[in-house]
Amino acid sequence: QVQLVESGGGSVQAGGSLRLSCAASGYGYGYSTYCMAWFRQAPGKEREGVAAIDSEGSTSYADFVKGRFTISKDNTKNTLYLQMASPKPDDTAMYYCAADSRDPICDQIPQMPPRSNWFTYWGQGTQVTVSS
Question: 3-class DSSP state for residue 36?
Fold first, then answer.
């Protein structure tokens, strides 16, 4: 059973930086073949895709984080990262990581930001609060 555990959330001032991590387990030797993504959900709003990465390292980003956030994946540590640079108060949300291994899903990642109905496995989330 694939399990995802996010960490690294907290409070940060606008213009600062924060790095989120998502530790994965239960993949066996297949972690490198999975595509993964970050989503976020603010109170009263729908969950939205932030960034995604496929098994070859191709990435996609939502327009509202392009140039500020960077997604990366360390296959030796089975860990996904989201480096948040210059966060804004609007970035305040619960951040979730997600994973899937199906080719029809992963093939879409370089073409568009991720959608929540694509992914099978989800973490419990980590809260990020950005103050002005």
Answer: strand
Nearest to 89 by CA among 20, 9, 13: 13
Q: Tell me the one-letter amino acid at 16.
A: G
Q: Express each pLDDT in 8-26 by its tens digit.
A: 999 999 999 999 999 999 8
CA distances from 129 to 8, 10, 12, 88, 113 (A): 12, 6, 6, 9, 23
What φ, ψ does residue 50 adopt, rounded to 5°?
Answer: -105, -55
**CB-neighbour burial class of residue 130 (10 A; exposed 0-12, middle 13-18, buried 19+):** buried
3-state secondary structure of 127: strand
Residue that has been written with the tokens 């291994």 in this structure: 101
Nearest one of 54, 46, 65 to 130, comparing CA atoms: 65
